[in-house]
Amino acid sequence: MTDWVALEQQYYMRTFNRLPVVLDHGEGARVWDVDGKCYLDLVAGIAVNALGHNHPALVNAIAEQAKKLIHVSNLYYSTPQLELARLICEHSVGDRVFFANSGAEANEGAIKLARKWGKYQKGGAYEIITVSGAFHGRTIAALDATGNEKYYKDFAPMPGGFIHVPFNDVAALEAAVTDQTAAIMLEVVQGESGVNLATDEFMRAARRLCDANNALLVLDEVQTGIGRTGHFMGYQGVGVAPDVFSLAKGLAGGVPIGAVVATERASIFTPGDHGSTFGGNPLACAAGVAVVSTILAPGFLEHVRTVGGYFLQQLSGLVSRHDLAVSVRGRGLMLALDLEADLAGQLQSTALQKGLIVNATGPRTIRMVPPLTLTRAEVDEAITILDACLAECGAKVA
Ligand code: PLP
Known about the structure:
By secondary structure, the chain is an alpha/beta fold.
């Protein structure tokens, strides 16, 4: 039998610390490894498989599109791209879309829009204010926006022009905004740092400061967008609308895609300013149309809110039953459980052995971003396994 782990060690760049499981196929919220073991998947490709695995609407859309056209250049028109752009704009504050291939790339587009805004609408201002705990991606500019030394320390020099302030600190945000500020960029709920919610006050302050200072509010909706928080876009749940927002992850349910969306006022790219070979190609966009149409169908977002609320409530039960579990938080199906000790990695491994996939975002935090189709019965199953894991890991601490 092929030793896939050995092959990875020999041929793949040393970029990932992978868990010891080789996944083969999936159905709904379940995946199976090459040995036939089944797992309940609460990570969903890190908030990507919005419709779960092997969803018929998505699979059919990809298969049908593949038979017609997989790729054409942006030198020409293609229909799935325009259908997806229309769907996004008709259901958001956006008026225009540019498609890219990933979250980092979508953010690069948003950063370029903000820089151009500053250059022409604000006397050459180019600074973008971002916040601590953010994650905007792995390209050089997105790393600078992220502002976490852990990710960028070996890749200097950074492009510069990013000002970092503490998350949810309104006074610090107010103090940072100057006549050099082209934009404020943030996530409604921070994903990679462990599901940290922006306060309503902070979101409103960001909007107010942008309005008062002719700057753009850029929301990174790469993880929060496309139904994840129980609203089509995360900002729709907090009532603060951006000028620009970025999407990726769940947008095409697992087919690589990214998008920068902007209001008409902020859509200031002109031909030649930006581009992409693959961005907006028919295959990815047909997948996107299938995903977005499913998410916008009556009852879908309500399901996310209801099951998400139920999940949060059941996770709170874990906190009351186990000393090791100290708090829970989240919105929709973007949830986290905090532990009292540095045991998140161990809990993640124990859960995997027991057939449950969760994600340790830090030494003490477990994140769950399951398929949005998750059922209450699957939540109950996950809670039963987490109960056992917490008992096992907690016993080791005691
Ligand atoms: N922005 C946010 C909020 C993210 O969570 C991520 C990825 O985790 C990114 C950007 C980067 O996306 P990608 O990995 O597709 O480049």
